[in-house]
Design brief:
Layout lengths: L16 H15 L19 H15 L3 H17 L4 H17 L3 H15 L8 H17 L3 H13 L12 H13 L3 H18 L2 H17 L3 H14 L11 H24 L3 H29 L1
Helix pairs in contact: 1-2, 1-4, 2-3, 3-4, 4-5, 4-6, 5-6, 6-7, 7-8, 8-9, 9-10, 10-11, 10-12, 11-12, 12-13
Length: 315
C-alpha cells in the first residue's frame, strides 16, 4: 500500500547532504536533459553548499512532502541550479532531478517528469558518480511510470527490465516485488509478446503467493490464462482458466482498500469466461460456448453496474 513519508528530523542539517537528499527523494517517490548542464566535477575541489542553499533544499523537501507541489517544483529548480553552479557531486544532483521528476509527475507534467528522470539516470552513470544502487533501481521504476502514462510501451518494458535486474540491490523485504512483473507483463502483452507476458505473470503469481496476497495472486492467474492463450498455448490457457474459476471465490477481505482489487478481479473473471467461450466455440462446443458467453456478459454488466453505483455514492 501507499506509505506516508515522515518529515525530515529537526537536526537534518547535521546529516550529510547526500544522505538527506536520498532519504527524502525516496520518501517523496513512495508518496506518489541536457548533458551540458552538469560538467565533470573534481570532487577534491568541492565545497559544501551554503547554509542558505541547504535551507532552500529543506523547504523544497518539506513542500513536496506536504503536497505543495508547485512550490516544491520551484524550490527544487533553485536547488538544482545551485548544486550545478557550485559543482556538487553528480549523484546528489541526480537525486534532486529524481525528486523534481516525482513532483512533476504528480502535477501531471509527464513530459517534464520524464526529462528529469532521464537526466537523473544520465548523471548516475557518468564517471565519478557514486549513486545508491537502490536509488538507481527506483529511478528506473519511476521512469517506467512516466513511459506508461505516455503509452510508450517499449520504453516502459525496457525500464521495468532494468528495475527487475536490480532488485537484488534492495533490501530483502523490497527485493520481492511481484508488482514489477505484473507491470512488465502488461507492457509485453501490449507489444504482442504474450510468451514473455505469461512468464512474468507466472513469476508474479508465485511472488504474490509467497506474500500471502490472495486477491492479486488470483488476478495474476487470470492474466496468465489470457497471456497463455495469446501465446498459442490453448491447453495451458484452458487449464489456467479453469484453475482461476475454481479459486476466484477464495479471496476474502474486510479491508475497504481492497474494493478496487476485488472489482478488478470481477472484471478479469468476466474476461476469462468470454475467452473460454471463444475457445469452446472454436472446438465445436457451440452450446457450452453460448453459456460461457452469457455468463461473461452477465459478469461484465454486474461489474459496470457496481462501478456506476460506487461512483454515484462517492459523488
Amino acid at each position: 500500500g501507499n506509505m506516508r513519508p515522515t518529515l525530515m528530523p529537526r537536526d537534518a542539517g547535521a546529516l550529510s547532504v547526500a544522505r538527506a537528499v536520498h532519504q527524502v527523494a525516496l520518501a517523496v517517490a513512495l508518496t506518489f536533459a541536457s548533458p551540458s548542464l552538469c560538467p565533470a566535477i573534481d570532487v577534491t575541489e568541492l565545497k559544501g553548499p551554503s547554509a542558505e542553499s541547504q535551507a532552500t533544499l529543506r523547504r523544497a523537501f518539506s513542500a513536496a512532502q506536504s503536497g505543495l507541489s508547485k512550490q516544491a517544483d520551484k524550490l527544487l529548480t533553485d536547488s538544482i541550479g545551485e548544486w550545478q553552479r557550485t559543482r556538487q557531486p553528480v549523484d546528489e544532483t541526480a537525486a534532486l532531478y529524481k525528486t523534481r521528476g516525482v513532483v512533476r509527475f504528480g502535477l501531471g507534467d509527464t513530459a517534464g517528469a520524464l526529462s528529469d528522470l532521464t537526466e537523473a539516470l544520465r548523471l548516475d552513470t557518468v564517471p565519478g558518480s557514486n549513486p545508491d544502487p537502490a536509488e538507481l533501481q527506483r529511478t528506473f521504476q519511476l521512469r517506467a511510470n512516466a513511459y506508461r502514462a505516455l503509452s510508450r510501451w517499449a520504453e516502459e518494458e525496457a525500464d521495468l527490465t532494468a528495475a527487475i535486474e536490480r532488485l537484488d540491490d534492495l533490501s530483502i523485504l523490497e527485493s520481492t516485488n511481484p508488482y514489477l512483473y505484473t507491470r512488465r507483463a502488461e507492457a509485453r502483452a501490449r507489444l504482442g509478446d504474450y510468451s514473455g507476458a505469461a512468464e512474468d505473470q507466472q513469476q508474479a503469481q508465485a511472488d504474490y503467493r509467497s506474500t500471502g496476497d490472495k486477491i492479486r495472486r488470483t488476478i495474476a492467474g487470470a492474466d496468465l490464462g489470457l497471456a497463455l492463450y495469446g501465446a498459442g498455448d490453448e491447453a495451458g490457457a484452458v487449464d489456467q482458466m479453469r484453475s482461476t474459476f475454481k479459486s476466484k471465490g477464495l479471496p476474502t477481505t474486510n479491508n475497504p482498500d481492497d474494493i478496487g482489487r476485488l472489482q478488478e478481479l470481477s472484471r478479469k473473471d468476466a474476461e476469462l469466461h468470454l475467452a473460454y467461450a471463444g475457445h469452446l466455440f472454436h472446438v465445436g462446443r457451440v452450446a457450452d460456448a453460448g453459456r460461457q458467453w452469457e455468463s461473461g456478459c452477465i459478469r461484465l454488466q454486474a461489474f459496470v453496474t457496481d462501478g456506476e453505483e460506487r461512483l454515484a455514492a462517492e459523488g
